[in-house]
Structure formats: structure tokens, C-alpha cells
Amino acid sequence: MLFALGMFVFDSQTMLPDRIERDRAWRHARDDRFLAPAASQYVGPGDDKVTISGVLVPELAGSASAIETLAEMANEGEAYQLMDGTGTLLGCYTIERVANGGSNLLDTGQARKIDFVLELMRVAP
Length: 125
Known about the structure:
Helices cover 10% and strands 63% of the residues. The chain has one helix at residues 65-76, and strands at residues 3-5, 8-10, 17-33, 36-56, 80-84, 89-105, 111-123. The model has no long low-confidence stretch (mean pLDDT 90).
């Protein structure tokens, strides 16, 4: 297991991501001051975004239906716990975006290679 998002497990049966990015920010309120640098005050954590991407090759590893499973989870609008392969809980995340594209098409129109990107946003539990 590489990751788990709620009950969805990223592994060779579903999706094997080959890249993960995490973009975290912190918020600071700034007020302009006359003849001085702006004053700054820390007001709390900002966005915490995780992007998981990779390639599915259904003939070898992964399942094209896994993308639809994630889209259905996104439609529910729920927040899911994200856990990495070591068992570390990263927090509660909503699915903000699921993107995919196929190439090496068969005569049935099915893609032999499917690129995917999953964007998650951390929310308060």
C-alpha cells in the first residue's frame, strides 16, 4: 500500500501513483504603515494541498474503474482521512479534482495507458 484515502487503497490492484506533491501555506495579515515596512501578524494555517499523479496500465497494474471510484467519492463531497504507507495520518482531505487521459488506444477505444492526477485539499476534521 502506498496511500489510503478513506477506504480507497492505492496499490497494484487500483492505482499506483509515481509522484506525490504537497503544497502547504500559512497566512499572515499585513497592514501598511506610514514610512515603515508593513506590519505582519500570523493568523493561522492556510491551504494544504496534496497532488497524487501517475500512470495506469490496466493490462499490468491498476484498474481503469479506480478513477471512477474516486470520482464517485468526490461527488459525495465528504472529507476522507489520508494515510501514507507507513501508517502516518496526514489529515482529512476532500477530493478537489480528478483528471485523466488515455493513450495507446485499442480498436475498442480503450486506453492501454492512462495518466491520472488527483488533487486533494485538507479540511478541518
